[in-house]
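re the bet — no i am not wrong, look at it urself. input seq straight from the record:
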Amino acid sequence: MHSIKKTYFLLLALVITLVAHGQQDKPNIIIILTDDMGYGDISSFNSDYMKTPNIDRLAKEGTKFMQYYSASPICSPSRVSILTGMYPANWNFTTFLNDRQSNLEAEQANYLNTHAPTMAKIFKDAGYATGHFGKWHMGGGRDVLDAPNFDKYGFDEHISTYESPDPDPLITATDWIWSPQDSIKRWDRTAYFVDKTLAFLKEHKGQPSFVNLWPDDMHTPWVPEVEFRYSGKYPMNPEEEKAFTMVLEEYDRQIGRLLDGLKELGIDDNTIVIFTSDNGPLPSFRGSRSAGLRGTKLSLYEGGTRMPFIIKWPGHIPAGGTDGESVINSTDLMPSLTAMAGIGLPPNYKGDGEDRSEAFLGKPTTRKGDMFWEYGRNAYAFNYPKQEGYKSPNLAIRSGKWKLLVDYHENNVELYNMDVDKYEKDNIASENPKIVKELKAKLITWRMYMPTLTPGRMNPK
């Protein structure tokens, strides 16, 4: 009896101590979603191109995954896939959101349906503070003035750009990505979002936090501070490689500030940090930004959809690890992160992702299901890479080692063995008719069951 009482009081003392020091049992979660960053932009993925010491530091403290895929080669649908854990075509997203007429012609919604499940809603219901700091682009901007606000998707606090329902006036003096009139200049935006993220985490210390940190720095135009500081103007071409390298250097520095800030707050050990990109790079500069992978943003080849991915959680995820085996999809983040945080998914949730927490925690695992993509639903409002050989068919499936691409209602099939041909140089469709028939049937069937929008039904709430 004495030992039982002693154990009870020790446990009580531990609980009191944890509460007193603002500790929590569930991890904080930060998803850093970079805008238009290529597989080859990070030196830990491609040492022959750029140097990114702070992002590499993240890789040294965590594990990098070499086969992580975005569910779309363009921003709006790729972001929907992360937030909902579902293929974006389920919510009528197939390209970037534009004005109402363009969205109508592209057969897509003007904003994300508020009935969509989101990670923010699920984590909020589990007691998390939820924040979104950075680009949104899932509704709002241009002439879409009735897009639902962030709270409808589960976020407690937000700071966002013009492509959102509530743009921050400090960074949106005009209705565009960037303006010289902005109070916070283009080169200071990531620092601003990092500051907001750290302030949010400090404010809610002791309560678990879920944060989208989604900067837009690596999307053109690239406007490095040094050019303005010394000349008072912007003489650089904002799409040239020199401007890109200077902006990437500053972006990397801000990722280091975030990591330092987590340590200063004393929450580094209990914070899951994910670093990835929404889609491939554009321009790619000789293929360097995609580490030689075929394609870019706007393409279903690997350069448009295979993204850098790093995840760290000290004491849980192996430090300095590399997983080249596990195939991960952006739709997997919803079931994986909820599992890692010990949070159940809603009983009626039917996502497209898989729980990959086992792989994230250090045990490479084989993917159970197939992955599907669509980009280019019709001939309107869809841009494509201009480089020869980079425009892909508009549908794709990855099944095990096989990747098949084909245009809907066409027979221009391409088949690649990803185990030996990640650069997609050798189309072996004619040599594997049985595999082609099976995968094409799966892919076309998947596309047939995706919802379609008709005029008059563009704004479901």
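see?? The chain has a mean pLDDT of 92. told u. also The first strand starts at residue 28 and ends at 34. so pay up
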